[in-house]
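Hello, quick one for you while I still have it in my head. My current little project is about how a certain protein chain folds up. You're getting the sequence in one-letter code plus the fold written as tokens. Would you mind checking whether the tokens look sensible for this chain? Here's the protein in full, and shout if anything looks odd to you:
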Amino acid sequence: MVGPRQIRRIVKRERDQLGERLRSVEGSQNSVEVSSQVLNDCIQEDIEVDQEYIEIFFTEDPSPNEQVISVLREEMKLLREQNAVLMQKLDVMAEKLAEATALIKVSVKVEEVPAAMSLPIKSEEELDRFEESLTPQIKDFYINKVRKMLGSCPLSKCLKNIIDEDTIKLYNLDGTCGKKRLKNRAGIYSILKEALEQINPIDSADRSIRKAILNVKNNITKKKTRNK
């Protein structure tokens, strides 16, 4: 480490060299003397300032520097933690943006499907045509449509808006008790299942479909009872 005495000697040497240069410059003696005096004053001020700096910076007590370093370390730690939190938030926002973009693309895509049938499906013949007409694009259209329905009410209440009561009463999910098997209607079954899973991936889609079919049949029974 450079000590105060060495710094003073360097400053003095520089002062002497500058003085010699000034004396060698052409011009009046007064100009040289004035310039030399100004130089000496400036150098003296620099020496006094340097001395104060030396006394502060080169002190034998290192505690102020250690305190500064400690504060800087704490600040760097805090900045790293804040940066980590921001990166996590950016990851979440990027994921949400990707989901929103995908939904927009699906919505735009399904609006361009002219061959889709209107709902509800009102007969076995319409259900046959429905199954035969399905393409990946048309299927996406129906999944989006059913998902919108499920956004306002559960499947148990809106299934009749997808397949009318007179048609759905002929089915149950597994084809038991003399009923037709809805799973054999791969198109409509997969549309219901995928729409349900998009709305609520935790609950069982099959359980929701069974409940919806049972609810439709119970409503039919209640209507017949009231009409008697």
Remarks:
- Confidence is low (pLDDT under 50) at residues 25-36, 45-60.
- The radius of gyration is 43 Å.
- The longest helix spans residues 63-110.
